Amino acid sequence: MEETTRPHAGRTARRVPSAELLDGLERATALDRPIAVISKKVRRRLGPGKLRDVLHGVPMGHPLHPALAMTTFGCWLSASVVDMTRTGSRAARTLILVGLGSAVPTVAAGLTDWSTLHREQQRVGLVHAMTNAVAALCYSGSVFLRVTGRERAGRMLGYAGLAAASAGANLGGHMSYRQAAGANHAESVGHLMPLGWHDLCALKDLPNGRPVRRRLGYIDLFVLRLGDDVSVLADNCSHLAGPLHQGRVAMEEGQACIVCPWHGSAFRISDGRVMHGPATSRQPAFQTRLRQDGVIQVRPAE
Ligand code: FES
Question: What sections of the protein cross the membrane (predicted)?
Fold first, then answer.
């Protein structure tokens, strides 16, 4: 009989050390006490309102923190390049100072997002913040050394700051791409429903004025009936996939909204527009129509 070989049979999967380290960090329960204290303080300090929405990035439609972080990191990286090539000590100093200045709104936006994340994301986020704080301290010291005439020591401390900022950026990447913090958790919905109208359920089977969840194929839908009007959104919140049908209906700026039960994002029921963060992505909405036999049909809104 011919022997077949299975390339992976009997081999132990090799773990990448840094990935293992990050897995361990996600499970580091020792960080939970400071996380609980800090995130509660941040949430209390930044109650619901325009400022919090801006810091989350609601007007932009995506989180603000990564865009600001690019400015800070970019300035510090550029300063190191200038230092390495010895092309201008004044330019390096200016870049470091611009980076330090931009770190203020970067931290504010990052803390705001971090305060409404899952605990595993917050553990990585806390260490991300600490490494970046070390970077900021190094760069502050670097500027001080430079202006007091110790240029070489200032350059060295700048390189140490870049190393810390790079570690922080790596952790930020882990949070964004592995833990999906800041990602749109409802994006796939539009790709899971075939085009055209689909039967959802009979109008008479929907309670009046109370949101419910209905399943259509692979998708969970938030359904709210008000008389003969039926509004349908994707049920999993775009922020971190919370169940919208368990939220409360509220009026925001005269518009009926559903408020997510997990972190309080508010979405306009008519079209899924974000009225308040932390969500920054619109909730997928569906058009509805009532067939003559009383069956509600839905299709993705254009
Ligand atoms: S899951 Fe966070 S606001 Fe909905």
Answer: 94-112, 124-147
